[in-house]
Each structure stands twice: as structure tokens, then as C-alpha cells.
Write a structure and sequence with these properties.
Layout (H helix, E strand, L loop, with lengths): L1 H18 L27 H21 L4
Length: about 70
């Protein structure tokens, strides 16, 4: 089950984050949208999918860099 695997993955990341607070996990929810227009085959991103991904990844990454005064 996909959801169960994701939950187990998040649990393991959470354990690792207790040892290393500098480990981050970007939630995959809505990364390429929810209309399947962001992929060429339901899995691999197309131009729209990559654009949607960067719109989620960039603010997440900027926030981390700002925490360390690197931006």
C-alpha cells in the first residue's frame, strides 16, 4: 500500500531528524499538481510538472537557507 509505505518512510525520517536536525523532507503532496497535466505518463514530469515542482521546492529551500543566514 502506497500510503502505508509513505507513512513508514516519514516515520524513519522523523527518527533520523532527532539525531540530525539539519535533515529535511519536502512533502510530496501536490508537487506536480493533482490534475495529471504535469506529467507525460502519470509519473514523469513534463514542462508544466517541472514548473509546478520548482514553485514548491524553491520556497521550501529558501526557507531553509534563510534559517542559516545563507540567503
Amino acid at each position: 500500500d502506497f500510503q502505508l509505505r509513505n507513512e513508514r518512510f516519514r516515520e524513519e525520517i522523523s527518527k533520523l531528524q532527532k539525531k540530525d536536525p539539519h535533515l529535511y523532507l519536502l512533502p510530496e503532496t501536490g508537487l506536480m499538481g493533482d490534475d495529471h497535466e504535469g506529467t507525460i505518463d502519470g509519473v514523469h514530469p513534463n514542462d508544466l510538472g517541472f514548473d509546478r515542482m520548482i514553485r514548491k521546492i524553491l520556497p521550501f529551500t529558501k526557507n531553509i537557507l534563510q534559517q542559516y543566514n545563507l540567503l
